[in-house]
Amino acid sequence: MLFGVLRGPQTKWLLNVVIGLIYAVIYFFVFKWAIVKFNIKTPGREDETDEVVDTDEVTELGNGIMDALGGKENILEIDNCISRLRLVLKDTSIVNDALLKKTGSLGIIKINENNIQLVYGTKVEKAAAELKRAVKNSK
After folding, report:
1. What is the rounded CA–CA span in Å between residue 12 and residue 76?
2. Cα–Cα distance between 70 and 67 in angstroms, integer?
3. Which of 11, 17, 37, 126 sits at 20 to 30 Å (Cα–Cα) from 92?
4. Residue 7 confidence (pLDDT)
């Protein structure tokens, strides 16, 4: 509509559609070549080491986060969004910030006395899965 579709064929708007399709094909092949040639990480092409493995083995990361949060007894709920680990705790005042930083947390946000968010960035799914596994398997 921006190129004069309503004014009729005198604006030659159909030429813009054809040029747009040609550019789309060129962009597709140029970017595909660059991504494959230089091994550029795009969504869906991450390293396999970042994958969440579904096992019952408790890892050091899961135990470290659980210990920093005050143990299994202090954790009520574990959830995550795209970059943050969202937790409901009995008491956020006993959380060890320095220990959380050692687990790879990029930031700690204390919402109130029961809610806390830990920023892990793109590694949040792995951290959440390992924390859930550590809480489930701890005695």
Report:
1. 64
2. 5
3. 126
4. 83
Dig out the tokens for 80 from the structure: 């995550």
Total length of the chain = 139
Catalytic one of 19, 22, 34, 81 = 81
Which pLDDT tens digit goes with each residue over 91-130? 999 999 999 999 999 999 999 999 999 999 999 999 999 9
Q: What is the DSSP letter of 52?
A: P
* Cβ-contact 110, 93 below 8 angstroms: no
Neighbour-count burial of 66, counting CB atoms closer than 10 A to its CB (0-12 exposed, 13-18 middle, 19+ buried): buried
> Does the structure show a pLDDT above 80 at 1?
no
Residues 9-49 have pLDDT tens digits of 888 888 988 999 999 999 999 999 999 999 998 887 777 66
> What six digits make up the tokens of 111?
């919402």
Residue 133 token pair: 């596994």
Apex 33 CA angle, 21 and 24, nearest 5: 10
